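Look over this record as teaching material.
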Amino acid sequence: AHLNGGLALREMGKFDKAKSEIAEAIRLKPNYQLAYRDMAIVLDGMQDYAGAITYGKKALALDPDDLDARFDLGLAYRHSGDLASAIREYREVKRRDPSNLDNRQNLGAALQIQGSATAITEFRELVELAPDNPRYRTALGAAMVQAGRDEEAQKQYVLAIQLDPRDAENRAALGRSYETHKKFDDALREYR
């Protein structure tokens, strides 16, 4: 009952109360893996990343096969700035469940933040898995821009815009890319 109450409070954004309810669930049942996983999520939402990592590790110790807990631990590591640990967790989720698109996107984003050229590879694979998702094409485009591959990035932004013509983020990214290459008329068209 305490865990369910904590989950409901978490969904309502009442993290302090959710934390108390989940802590009581753990007190009553110290090996309740789901409670540790949910406490990690609550603490991450409260920006207590060290606490989220501690509870996430405990959740994984209780059930090493829980890929959701591993993904959430990756998020906590990423939010804490520990990109190497985040990437390690995301890669393990990818190894066990390559069809988890949220994980694949987070892996690519962590690699991009780290400045790794392999971010492009990750995002390309993601686009291959879900070619009709404009967000993934936008992410690929951003990784290409970061790597200095602006013309390839522009192609991804154009494809993303074709998939979702009203997405202002893609139009702005494409416009910035055009500006970089002194294609001001093209940039203005995207900004309008």
Q: What stands out?
A: The chain has a mean pLDDT of 91.
